Amino acid sequence: MDNTTPKVRTGQAPTPVSREDFGERFRRRFFDPAFDRERDALKRIELIAWEAYEQNHKSPLRRRAGLGFADPQYELSVEWLDARERLQRAESRQKDAATPSRVLVICGSPRNDGTCPGEMSKTFRLARIACDALHAAGIEADLLDLSRLASDPDRRIHPCKACVSTAMPLCHWPCSCYPNHALGQVNDWMNEIYERWTAAHGVILMTPVHWYQVSSPLKLMMDRMVCADGGNPDPTSTGGKDPEKAKALELKGWSYPKHLAGRVYGVVVHGDVAGIEGTRRALCDWLDWMELVDAGAVARLDRHIGYYEPYATSHDALDRDEAVQEETRNVARAVANAVGELRAGTLSMPDRGLRDPRPK
Description:
Blueprint lengths: L18 H10 L10 H16 L7 E3 L10 E3 H18 L6 E6 L14 H15 L3 E6 L2 H4 L38 H10 L2 E7 L7 H9 L18 H11 L10 E8 L4 H14 L3 E2 L5 E5 L9 H7 L1 H23 L16
Parallel strand pairs: 3-4, 3-5, 5-6, 6-7, 6-8
Antiparallel strand pairs: 1-2
Helix pairs in contact: 1-2, 3-6, 4-11
């Protein structure tokens, strides 16, 4: 194999935003006349923000990486180092036999009654049914409600930048793309979400079907989980975000570490017309790829609720459909059983220990 580092292709990046455009975008955040009495102060803050953008203050606070890194003298973001330490603590708790079993239940719907729809989602109701079943089985349930992206002020899951497609080692675990203070890309939720995945012994994904796909909040989270599947835990080995170093490192032979492998999963997909089976398969394929372990056929559920009925009565349809409620409980029960076997070392994993000849 030719290990010559491939050429880094450039030329797509747009020209930097002009001072005028930057200022116009900045000021839109303060359109409310309530800010009028502080316009002079905002002008000064705008200038600081412009200088941070112009000078690329992506990570303004950094410190030396220290022992355990390829380059101990390399300065890393203090925010990234803090996120890494939290993941390490979560991993230690997850592997400690004395800690309670924990399942992360993810509500993927963007709808809740705290924003424009004015009504909670059916997915949230199903998620609470799953949580109750987990509690009844003696399992801690951690409910992650992704609808908060739509209702919480300045809560974000910023898009994945596909660093992995340049070279796998350029994708750091946890993600080092955010926060980017130069671009104002802050308040990213993912470091907390990585921690909650890491601390869990099992995961249940729940989503409605939106245009034959998962919901947009769930897809944002999924894309940002790419660093859990082969991501590089040492940004100093790539000089931060140096694509040439990352390409050379991958070509030397990268192990593509599966940082969340071995956790148990269940899936609940619901829709009203079409797309439930394809969406369920896509979610299960994704989780299988990351080497999570399914909790059996019962734990992989797709169902129509109120098939071709009006949207306005969809919650009534869920009220009537006691079978889908019980099927959701069974997903949680199957995951709870599998988590028990996993922690006892009795969960059947016939492919455990087999070497993958095509790691990626």
